[in-house]
Every structure is written in structure tokens, then in C-alpha cells.
Amino acid sequence: MELLKQLSETPGIPSREEPIRNVISAELAPLVTAMEVDALGNLIAYRKGNGGPKVMIAAHMDQIGFMARHVDDNGFIRLQPVGGFDPRTLVAQRVRVHGEEELSGVLMPATKPTHLLDDAERGKSLKLDDLFVDVGIAGERVKELVPLGTPITFDRTCNDLGEVMVGPAMDDRVSVYVMIEAVRGLTEHQAEVYAVASSQEEVGLRGATVAAFGVEPDIGLALDSTLAVDIPGGTDVDRVSKLGDGTAIKIMDSSLICDPRLVAHSRKICEAEDIPYQMEILPRGGTDGGAIQRTRDGVPSITISTPTRYVHTVNEMVNKQDVQATVDLVRRFIETAHEIDLSWS
Ligand SMILES: [Zn+2]
Prior knowledge:
Layout (H helix, E strand, L loop, with lengths): L1 H8 L8 H11 L5 E4 L5 E5 L6 E7 L4 E7 L5 E6 L10 E6 L3 E8 L9 H5 L7 E4 L4 H7 L5 E4 L4 E2 L3 E4 L2 H15 L7 E7 L7 H10 L3 E9 L19 E6 L7 H14 L3 E5 L6 H6 L7 E8 L7 E4 H16 L10
Parallel strand pairs: 3-12, 3-13, 13-16, 14-15
Antiparallel strand pairs: 1-2, 2-12, 4-5, 4-9, 5-8, 6-7, 6-9, 7-8, 10-11, 11-17, 14-16
Zinc ion binds next to α5 and β13.
């Protein structure tokens, strides 16, 4: 899982995916026939098959983060989010500011120290606009080093806790890992495989939209994190998925209803190969599958998910066996893609 750790810790906010793209491209290069980067920064890796259907796999490589929106005279940096955050999870985090030089900083709320707060101030809810980054150097120097638009990401490592891995950007680097390992493990396949590390998913599935238009796939297979709300504060109804119960075959989310023939095919693979799996409905949240499905005259598409706790925080947690189950399902999906009957009965 060294590769997963590296993927988790390498920065890449939407539109500034170059550091993570370079890591992925180095891993995929020996496994594929050709590779290109398109206009929106999608990495499209093609692996030759034997005349089978064109299968586009998409795992988004961008992560939620910030751009520097304003630097004041004292050097405090205000933030433009790229992707969705709950401000309550951000207070007192450490960040990396990827400007002219990389700087370390702290993310703090614009408020008085706790000693000086009265009850009313203490109870106030926090907004993203209340937060700023302090890199601890003089204002003029910060202005030089941190031009507007500078990417800012969390300064967190990815840790192996035994059964689980926890780190930043597991959404969706865990799926990038799954995609790489599935391609690495491929035996014979007729499908023409397009493994796409997509850009700008977190701001609205933008990379996958154009990548799918270019690839023109017969089948779309998106890979993403899904919520595992199997924690205090969650209920059985809203659980979505459970950590440790296997890969998650998506039925629908708010961007797509997965093609029922691909859902059935995925289930059949898991049953036949003894791959632990769970079925998933995500009431809110989209995936690249939604973009691929609506390309040109339509593409049968599905999303396969890896259950993840604490999505969109710095402590995104995945279970190693779920990750392996997802790798196994995706690999078999590609190897059997030519058997899928896509006629309507
Ligand atoms: Zn995601």
C-alpha cells in the first residue's frame, strides 16, 4: 500500500493536477500501450485489447482544496474553496501553500482566543469566509510568494492503521490506486481499455465530460469513494455503505442511475468470484459516471465505489480488504466486458 500512501499525499487540486498526474503517469506507463494528456489535463492511458468493446475507466485524480483568494498586508491568506468543505472540520489544520516556494501554514478562524470569548461568540457557527491561513512570514514576502490562485492543500500524512488506511484525498486517490492495480493485474482481455485519471471532478465532473467525448467509449466505468456513515451520528437508513463489507456496486447517485445490465454483470462477477460486495444508493453526490453516461448519444455506465469514512475531511479512511475487493471486481469487469449483453430485452 506504499503506492496508495504516495497517491494520498501528493497534491492536485482541480486544474492543478500536475504533481499527482506525474505520479500516476509513471505508474501506468509500463502497463499500457499509449498515453496522452488532453486539453483539460485528463491523463488518458490506452491499453490495447483484441477488438472488444471500448471500456473507459475513470478515477478522478483531483482533490478538494483551496486557491489563495486574497493576501492582506499582514500576510494572512484568504481562501477560495475548490470542492465542498464542512468548515467545522477545518479549524486548526496545517496546510501546504504551493506558491513560488512551498510554504507551511496554519488554517485558523478569524476570532479571539478562547480565553476571551463570551458565550454568544462561542456558540457562533463557523463559515469558510471566517478562516485564513497564516504562514508566519512578513506580508510583503507572502505577496511575492503566493500569487492569487496559488493551490493550498492539507499537510497530512497517510497512515497505515493495520486494517485501514487513513489520509487526505482518499477521495479519490483510492480509486486511482484501484484503477492502476486492476490494470496491472489484467490477464487476457478483449476490451480496448482507456484508463482515465480525470481532472476537475470535484468542481462538477468537468474532466470526465470531455475525456468521454474524446474516447467515445462503449461502456463507462467510473470509480469513486462513497460514504460509509457507519459511525456515531449515522443511522441505518442513511448509512449508504459500511467499511469492511466489501466493494460497493452503485445503483444510483444524484448524477446517474447506473445501467442495470452493468449492475447485474458486476453482481454476477462478485458472486462467481467470491468478491465481498454491497449494493449502494447515494442520495446526494455525483460521480464521473454521470458525465460519461450523457456523452454523445449516451454510454451505458456504472460507478463502482470504495466505502470511505469521513469523506471530504483530512482523515478519509478506507479498509484494505474493501480496496482489494474493488481491484478484483474492476479487473474481472474488464476481462469479461466482451461478454456483456447490451441489447435491451
Ligand atoms: Zn470523489
